[in-house]
Queue: 3 jobs
Job 1
Amino acid sequence: MSVVGAFVFPHPPVLVPAVGGGKEAEAAKTLEAFFSAADLLASLEPELIVFISPHMQYYSDCFIVPACKKASGGFAKFGAPKTTLNAAYDKDFAKILTAAANSAGARTETPCHPERSEGSYAANSAGAHTETPCHPERSEGSYAANS
């Protein structure tokens, strides 16, 4: 498996119709760029699409690679509590990515709490995931949320 493309998507919530309420035109050029990028992405016929989000919690000394089956989030913070997203994680790819990163000298963490219900990695009101990876050896305040 190799990287066939990379895309950066600014994502103003106004683009979601339930949030924008007709104001989506304010970001029309961004939306047009999304569709162009989606067409290009489809033409690449990727085997897998990996999303990297600035809205996840993170550590300064390692990469977080979630190891759960799925995640969910929503737009309640933006006035659209019924608009939600669900995503499945590829656990096999997570293992491959973690092994490759670790062999290259990058530290990774693979948080998951199987005792909790699926979807426990739901985005909180700040857009950051609400579960905290287990790091009992770290002091308080070492876990930063990028909001």
Job 2
Amino acid sequence: NVYNGDIGIITDIDLEEQRIEVTIEDREVYYEYGEYAITIHKSQGSEYPAVVIPVVMSHYMILQRNLIYIGIKRRKNKVVLIGSKKALVVYSSEK
């Protein structure tokens, strides 16, 4: 019962079970490590301590330089690009 565009607040991180509790509206939702993300478009106007951006060729239809730029601008302290150099070249060459 979580839909694209829902925004939640992390209310607990269980290191042993490796899961995160998120409150979305008035309900608790649990995610296993690695099961959650927010789109760059949804994050516009916000800042986050760290941003991780996948840069992969399987998303070649949306590879755009301004998307990477917006993602980088969302970070306060750290940004990590994960993927391939080839995909980053495609990103940087798009108009």
Job 3
Amino acid sequence: MARLSLSLVGSRNALAFLDMLAVSEGTAGNGDDGYDVLVGGALFQGYAEHPNRRVWLPRLGIYSTAAGRYQVLARTWGDLRRKLALRDFSPESQDLAAIELIRECHALDDIHIGRFDAAVYACRRIWASLPGAGYGQRENKLSALRFAYQSAGGVVAGEAA
């Protein structure tokens, strides 16, 4: 489960969406529940800074610096760290950064009111594992992500809680 308090994210749905993103990115349940995971699955030590390690991904033929529960790239992290005045790469900072990325996608209101599919669609350009992202990487099925979201306590509009 995400480590931010409900008061900081605005709704239980937002916390569930963060948990769903960790499932989608393949970090949930690994290491410190994904907060210390490098792209490819290795773990890093310490939260003082984004690890900024270039990892070769032979299947994709690219290097990536994605790290943490939400697999944020080093360049994206640098921008978010400055914008949000984050002091470290701690779990709380990673959660705040993910919420900001969701907000920048104009998906936070959709999440709060339970428009799950619309929120996933809006966030697909940020997270390559979301359906329709189009980055040539593994994309998860919307139904599987909805299940992960609901299992984490998220409610889809029009469905009973």
